[in-house]
Design a protein that fits this description.
Elements (H helix, E strand, L loop, with lengths): L8 E9 L12 E8 L5 E6 L15 E4 L7 E9 L9 E10 H6 L4 E8 L2 E12 L5 E10 L13 E8 L5 E6 L8 E2 L3 E4 H5 L7 E7 L7 E8 L1 H5 L5 E3 L16 E11 L3 H6 L3 E9 L23 H13 L7 E7 L1 E3 L2 E3 L2 E2 L8 E3 H15 L1 E2 L6 H12 L9 E9 L6 H11 L4 E7 L6 H7 L18 E5 L7 H9 L2 H11 L33 E4 L34 E4 L74
Parallel strand pairs: 18-19, 18-25, 25-26, 26-27
Antiparallel strand pairs: 1-4, 1-8, 2-3, 2-5, 5-6, 7-8, 9-12, 9-13, 9-17, 10-11, 10-14, 14-15, 16-17, 19-22, 19-23, 20-21, 20-24, 28-29
Helix pairs in contact: 5-6, 5-10, 7-8
Amino acid sequence: MAEIRQCPKFQIFLSCRKLKDTDILSKSDPFIEFYEKDKQENWVKSGVTEVIDNNLNPDFITNFEIDYLFEEQQYLKFKVYDSDDGSNKSHHRNIIGETECTLGEIVGSKGQQLIRTIKHHKKSTGNIIIRVEQVNENSSTLMLQISAKDLEDNSGFFHSFKPFFYLSRVTESGENIRVYCSETSKGRNVTWKLFEKSMKDLSNGDSSRPIVFDLYDHHRSGNHDYMGSTEFSLNKITEEGVKQFTIINPKKKSKKGYKHSGIITINTCQIIQNYTLMDYIRGGCQISLMIAVDFTASNGIPTNPNSLHFINPSGMNNYEQALFAVSDILLNYDSDKQVPMYGFGGKINGLTSHCFHMNFNPQDPSVKGMEGIIGAYRNSLRYVELNGPTLFAQFLGKIIADIESQRIDQMNQQYFVLLILTDGEIHDMAETINWIVRGSHSPLSIVIVGIGNDSFNNMRVLDADDTPLIDSKGNKMLRDIVQFVPFREVNNSPQRLAKEVLAEIPREVANFFKLKGIMPNAAIAAPDYDFDRSYTISQVPNNIIGSQPIPVPSGKGSNLSTMPPQPNYQSLPPQGNPCYAPPGQYQTVKAPSNYNQAPPGYGQPPPGYGQPPPGYGQPPPGYGLTGSASHQTLAPQNSKSGPPSSAGPYNTLPPSGYDYVSPN
């Protein structure tokens, strides 16, 4: 039977600040309509707040409850209106402004609070504050151990007594629903194993509700003999201190001399609070994404339209769709958006590598956000020659060793998700299993997406849904950390892919920290923001989006659409930090009102910046052929003469700002 997974629920609370006043004789009477995007990409109205009279800074009492699906991007829209007649239902109203976001953006924000500028006709008309809080449900788990003595043994010569029991939850209508079955034991005096069961399963979270204990004698045929029953409640055990309960067989109760069919004792009854992914995120836990991409020759030459790596000008290929679908969700929970990207199975400078940095930065494989991920993937296809074979162990070893070097404890909570995109079977299965078993002890989940039409039989083994992985030393994996999905099995749908591969991540995160005895930290308070104060870019909180001052290079005007001159701009600053312009003073100016990221072009070099000109990396005609000298090294920066002779190969690119020239 398939498991029915219950989604956590969140309540959405809304406030507005500095709304534009659309009334003439009084202040606006605002209310908000709340919309969700459905499966057909249509906006569906889900609720509306009350109207608050004459208030440009309203805090609405009405809240909205929504299911939270970690593996899906849930798009939300908020429309703020001014009511002309005091009603939130009539058409006598004026639009003040609106905004869109995702539920993941709100949940992933500090303090689970997101502040957005609302706009009408592209003009700012105020700010909306969106807060969420998880609906409080009983997520506790009960640890129980039960023993029994003086059990009635009715077995004969050809059968040994093998007692076991069921626990049943009593519904409000008085029906018993079985929720647990013990292992079998032997003898009249037994102690069954300690077990764990959720409070919701046992009693629907009600500590006073009866739990029924039914004792049976096990038979291989399945026709087990009923021995008797008793019942108890958690309150009776924990509050009244009752630990022993008598088993009674109703069929024998009226017989002369019958006392009971045994006595059970509750040896252990411990209620344990279970925490969710949201509890850890509220306390500051970061979910960090890492990516590994297959560059083996079986993908096909990227310039061929039939290649899995073909860059289609009219849309994304399957690799790009998978990168976008998974990254788009996980980046919500990563504050710095820095994503290490590794390639495997490709040839660089004539050498095959099974673990290379896709940004070609030998010091740091990280790229910034979604643009960096897609950009690094596309750029790498220009310089990497597809080769093989398909090997996982080398990059897995590097990544897992890096995670093991991180300090993970109560005050330093971080979890990693590794996304692997591959088109075929791996050829180092034993070594890969060794690393996965080792990685199961680390804060790591591995998501493998199969691209193309291969059978992927080995990947299904790594998924370990049916049989846990065991390494070459006989060690069994501590946790099931691998999720595999072939892209074709979700009909090449990015949304379905994300849902399939990310559905288990919340449980895996919570289980890891539970195993390590790490509880969520106290919830981080939302940043306090003064709407009347001027901020520089380094001071604006990540979740404040609106019309804010930002520093720009002196003399460059009020927008950062151009970069400083190339010789003085050797590296791009992280988005959100002042850029390193030529010497001079910074001036603080107002950014455009649509500042929800850096202005167009900011954080991106001018066209061609950092890219070699045609033929760059190859000697120009005649280069190295003057006289008997062999000019094969780079000229000094800005040199206008030929480089000195050298026997070294000319196969690497110089840093930006270096010239290459033919000999005089």
